[in-house]
Design a protein that fits this description.
With about 550 residues, the protein is an alpha/beta fold. About 50% of the residues lie in helices and about 15% in strands. The protein has three domains: about 130 residues, Resolvase, N-terminal catalytic domain (Rossmann fold, 3-Layer(aba) Sandwich), CATH 3.40.50.1390; about 140 residues, Putative Large Serine Recombinase, Chain B, Domain 2 (Hect, E3 ligase catalytic domain fold); about 240 residues, no CATH class.
Length: about 550
């Protein structure tokens, strides 16, 4: 039996999501308003307000319109909620059931889903008996629709269709159906310069400073001026490049002519918060469009990311070729660059500087911490350049034999470790899948009331911590294996590079970063007759091979 109460103050709720539009539902906001308003007036009810959410999925209740509706209901401003059907109110059966079965009755709120014949004032109807099943079906429909939409996007991405709203800096979206990027030459030249500077050892922050000094517009403002697009203001509206922006460009494979899409995904169809996908789950289609930079330049920049050197400049902005690559052979600390004017030249205008290095820990903590490792920079440069020429000569004379022996030696050393690592990775991934299942079960059991909340939280905390640790371990091992697979490529590149410096006399920063991993400087000898310990570690360790063949 229906309630005898007539003095209802109604809140009408309407919703249309983007998913609904894609699925072909003819449920416009205006049609819902018209239908529900007419119904309320026919019943003689007062309409307090119409609450709307346009373009928001029903799987979440974090909708401004529905939240305002619920706030007014709890405050007693309205005592009747009218929707077209249950799916308009929500497609999460647990949340919908929580409101219709517990919260609304507690606050004395009547709920009507017109098309479904749902009316909480009349509990004895078949429709009310079917309401839990309707809620489950609505959630299933949302899940199924979401899967179909994701499948469409995935298929399109695999087929090389570009989905982003705008192209990366240096490109514009093409006019074809696939919307593939085409080069915008004006901006593309700046992209090339960014990569060239980074390959020379210039830091992203320093590149940003250089571009700002040259008054080059950053991407957003460039697009706004050239194409009339909108600009997201950062508070002060300053048109500046940042180190972060430069890093994003340096790590974007689009500039190689490849499309990498679906880098992020939503937590679930119920939770639209974006999370970053694992690289293995991203869709990569190679050679889809014209590249702005070549593979060699890209690889040089990747090497810079792994380099121990950060290329810290002096106060005058000078970066020494060996800056950041020198280490104390005794305490392991980085060597610190110092400079001064020679006594004879101090009175001359713009006198030359004399550079030297010493143990940074000694300079910071005193001679009791570490002995002197002082070395004249010019002398060290001469020594390193001579060693590079020596290596280049040996490679030029016997490249094939050096390469063969190096690869054989490396294969022997890594075979067993690779097998163990691969086995461990497989084991970890099986456990990760099991943990995902256990987390889902815990959530489901809590939702169904089978598991107390505090027990559920404890399980999920433990599973999540184990999952995080395993993911980190697995990623590290996969990275290690990947790096070992690159050995053949690395030795080819290294041997090719070092041959170019057979006649080098000047040690440049680019040469050092291309060839050298680090250099260990031994203690300053107390006598000139005692040889100085200096160990040069190259990016590819060919010293052992050269010693064997000597």
């Amino acid at each position: 039996m229906k309630s005898k109460q007539d003095n209802y103050i109604a809140g009408i709720y309407v919703r249309l999501s983007k998913d609904d539009e894609r699925a072909g539902e003819s449920l416009s906001i205006e049609n819902q308003k018209l239908l529900l308003t007419q119904y309320a007036r026919e019943q003689g009810w007062v309409i307090h307000d119409i609450y709307a959410d346009d373009g928001i999925s029903g799987t979440t209740f974090e909708r401004p319109g529905v939240q305002r509706l619920l706030d007014d209901a709890k405050a007693g401003i309205i005592n009747l909620i009218i929707v077209k059907d249950l799916s308009r109110f929500g497609r999460n059966y647990i949340e919908v059931g929580k409101y219709t079965d517990y919260i609304f009755p507690m606050f004395g709120i009547r709920f009507i889903a017109l098309s479904d014949n749902i009316d909480t004032a009349d509990k004895d109807t078949a429709a009310m008996d079917m309401m839990p099943i309707m809620n489950v079906f609505n959630e299933w429909y949302a899940s199924n629709t979401s899967k179909k939409i994701r499948a469409v996007f995935k298929a399109g991405a695999q087929n090389g269709k570009y989905y982003s709203s705008h192209a990366p800096y240096g490109y514009i979206i093409g006019p074809t159906e696939k919307r593939l990027p085409i080069i915008d030459e004006e901006a593309a030249e700046n992209v090339r310069e960014i990569f060239r500077m980074r390959a020379r050892g210039v830091s992203p922050n320093r590149i940003a400073e250089e571009f700002n000094a040259r008054h080059i517009l950053p991407p957003e403002y460039y697009r706004a001026e050239k194409f009339g697009t909108s600009v997201r203001r950062n508070g002060n509206g300053i048109r500046l490049w940042t180190g972060t922006g430069i890093r994003q460009i340096l790590h974007n494979p689009t500039y190689l002519g490849n499309l990498v899409q679906q880098k992020t995904t939503s937590v679930s169809y119920k939770n639209k918060r974006r999370i970053v996908r694992d690289e293995s789950e991203r869709i990569v289609v190679e050679n889809t469009h014209e590249a702005i930079i070549g593979k060699e330049l890209w690889d040089k920049c990747r090497e810079m990311e792994k380099s121990v050197s950060r290329g810290k400049p002096t106060k005058r902005g000078y970066v020494h070729p060996l800056s950041g690559l020198l280490f104390c052979a005794d305490c392991g600390g980085k060597m610190k660059l110092s400079w001064r004017h020679s006594r004879k030249s101090r009175k001359t205008p713009d006198p030359p500087l004399r550079f030297s290095f010493d143990c940074g820990n000694r300079l910071r903590y005193g001679k009791s911490y570490c002995a002197s490792h002082y070395i004249n920079a010019a002398e060290l440069e001469t020594l390193v350049a001579a060693d590079i020429r020596e290596k280049a000569k040996a490679v030029r004379l016997n490249e094939a034999e050096i390469k063969r022996e190096y690869l054989e030696r490396n294969a022997r050393m890594t075979e067993e470790t690779d097998k163990a690592a691969a086995k461990k990775i497989r084991k970890n991934k099986l456990r990760l899948a099991e943990l995902e299942r256990l987390i889902d079960v815990a959530y489901e059991d809590r939702a169904k009331g089978k598991l107390p909340e505090e027990v559920c939280i404890g399980f999920i905390k433990r599973y999540t911590e184990e999952k995080s640790a395993l993911q980190q371990e697995t990623e590290q091992m996969e990275t290690q294996l990947s790096e070992e697979k690159q050995v053949r490529f690395n030795v080819d590149v290294f041997l090719s590079r070092i041959k170019n410096y057979l006649e080098t006399t000047e040690l440049t920063r680019e040469v050092c970063l291309e060839l050298i991993e680090r250099i260990y400087i031994g203690e300053l000898p107390k006598s000139k007759d005692i040889p100085r310990k200096i160990e040069i570690v190259y990016k590819v360790d060919i010293d052992s091979v050269l010693l064997t063949n000597s």
